[in-house]
Amino acid sequence: MIYRSPISPGLSWYEASVANRPAYPSLDGDQRADIAIIGGGYTGLSAALRLAGGGADVVLIDAHRFGDGASGRNGGQIGTGQRAWPTELESEIGLERSRALFRIAEEAKAELLSMADDHGFDIDYRPGQISAVHKKRWVQGYRNHAEAMAERYDYPHISFLDREETAAAIGSKRYHASIRDIGTGHIHPLKLVVGMAEAAEKSGTRLFENTPAHAIDAEGAGVRITMEHGTLHASRCLVATNAHGDAFQAEPVSPRHIMPIRSFIGATGPLDNADAILPGGEAVDDSRFMVRYFRKISGDRLMFGGREAYSAKTPGDISGHIRKQIAEIFPDLFDVDIDHVWGGSVGITLPRLPFVRTIMPGVTSIGGFSGHGVMMATHTGRLWADAVMGHRDDLKLLQDLDIPPFPGGVALRKPLLFLAMTWFAMLDRL
């Protein structure tokens, strides 16, 4: 078997804690299938599982190992709605369309959990998420959001917590207020990847790791995918490379709309005062534009993300930077041991909404979940599969979203993003 260099830096706690992570062969030779899928993260695997379960002949390839991208290395938070709050979307797309997108997201949440149950694999689901306010002037906005979700979106699971209630729920006095969402939770993301891959293979999908695609071309009424050691012929193709579309130069459309940014996470050793931190077991995200997110794992460890980068170069001293951020929220942990540090690339779009587009005849690209992919990437893969099989057509709601290209084209978008993110990071600190 051919092994590629790691797509993301660092050994994650997820990799260290998964007892069985099956390896799949690389593809050597020519193959034919009804459906070809490029990318073995949440989107590609969920589409393969759905299609194979419906009787389609599916081949899925990935340039690396399944889960080496963001799908196996993210913060594990499921969230509610799209990446942008429904109340924010109303002014741009109207209440009706915002409610429709919220409905899709709620179905995504339910189907994520039911899929794991139906196929008999554990994803370590834990309920609860807290969104914390780091600027006092935003407190009323969070209170209004909790009320609007109950009144206009029939979602009664969000409650507002004042400063004292927030301090008790998080174990920190750093935040001014928060909202608690008991209608969502968090998972072990790599277990979701492993479970979907095993279920897809059992359903008949042919899975291949360490198999990069070099070109996609129209071939009569179908598609031809050229690989390093063979050719894959199919009637239709899904490109689900997401944040790694830049490396997949055979498809130039998506990289103009999906920007990769790099995020880094640390996991501490066992904490002496673990019971005082997040006693309810929720996951937390905060209101910074450069969001910080954290939760407890294994009962007595803290997983903390917040270090980001906007170039391919891995920053130095990631542990020290994450430890400093942890200490800003939990001062007693200023010298905490960090056992694991890892990073990965997240695909974002300008409006922070998914990119779903037909990029050439018979070929669809899906990505850009902007840090909200645990449920939405998984669900959008299922929606694409359902559209292919002629079932529900909720995918059209996502296809109709206006996802403009990043300014500056592929060459200048990263320098422009760096300038913009530097500005927002400064505002977060003020």
From TrEMBL:
| Gene3D superfamilies reported for this sequence | D-Amino Acid Oxidase, subunit A, domain 2, FAD/NAD(P)-binding domain
* GO CC annotation, single: cytoplasm
User: Per UniProt, which keywords does this protein have?
Assistant: Oxidoreductase
Could you give a GO molecular-function term held by this entry?
oxidoreductase activity
**One of this protein's Pfam families, by short name?**
DAO
Report the InterPro entries cross-referenced here: FAD-dep_OxRdtase, FAD/NAD-bd_sf
Q: Where are the transmembrane segments?
A: none
Q: What is this protein called?
A: FAD-binding oxidoreductase
Protein's organism: Notoacmeibacter ruber
